[in-house]
Amino acid sequence: xxxxxxxxxxxxxxxxxxxxxxxxxxxxxxxxxxxxxxxxxxxxxxxxxxxxxxxxxxxxxxxxxxxxxxxxxxxxxxxxxxxxx
Length: 85
Known about the structure:
single chain; 3 helices; 36% helix
């Protein structure tokens, strides 16, 4: 899959609310004051998507405050599985 293809899927899944969070993501979100709304907006409006190791994708997009939020995601069973950093 290309980065462009992954970006289309990630945006679509996020717009449909098909987002799951790892335990690590939930912990990091709490530590960094990142809400599920921030993640959803960032993924739904992602402007960049780069391939990472182990079938992961690194996305970048605006959160609810229009700050750039980067997420690492895995596309799994029609969902976006997220960890935030």
